[in-house]
Design goal:
Strand content: 15-25%
Structural class: alpha+beta
Helix content: 25-40%
Largest sheet: 3 strands, antiparallel
Strand order of the largest sheet: 1-2-3
Number of helices: 6
Shape: elongated
Length: about 160
């Protein structure tokens, strides 16, 4: 997609390189002459731009919407879209917060137990009976012999 500025540049090139009239260049490009002749009349944003930059440095967690409110409170008669445009042009994006900290490097593998009763593992196992009652069992296993040392039944009533 070609922007209006691109069409203006193309029409200017045709006029300069081929000594063509503006009317004919626009007809060849299929562009309206008013869009080629258009001159932007944007107001001077220097004061607003400086104030927005200082506010964004003071309040780093504020986006353009909250900064717009602060500017309005200070007396700047400014549109939200204009603040957003300047905010984007100045690259004043809010710093993203850091994510979850993950473990760095590789973890040391667990040592394998060489003798019985050196290390045990505990876990809950749950199931359901045919009549809907649930039960949980605490199992204790020796990691070396893989023998179940004990288990305790914890009954839960069905709701």
């Amino acid at each position: 997609m070609v922007t209006p500025a691109g069409w203006r540049e193309a029409a200017g090139h045709l006029q300069a390189a081929y000594e063509m009239s503006e009317r004919r260049a626009c007809r060849i490009l299929g562009v309206d002459r008013t869009s080629v002749r258009y001159q932007a009349t944007r107001p001077d944003d220097d004061v607003l731009r400086d104030r927005l930059r200082t506010l964004a440095q003071e309040r780093r967690r504020f986006g353009y919407r909250r900064l717009h409110v602060l500017l309005r409170r200070e007396g700047h008669a400014v549109n939200k879209k204009r603040v957003q445009r300047i905010y984007r042009e100045e690259r004043l994006t809010v710093r993203r917060r850091g994510g979850r900290k993950r473990a760095m490097g590789t973890r040391r593998p667990l040592d394998l137990p060489l003798l019985a009763n050196q290390r045990w593992s505990l876990d809950f196992v749950s199931d359901q009976m045919t009549d809907g009652r649930r039960f949980r069992i605490l199992t204790v296993i020796d990691n070396c012999t893989r023998e179940c040392l004990g288990s305790g039944l914890i009954a839960k009533r069905a709701l």
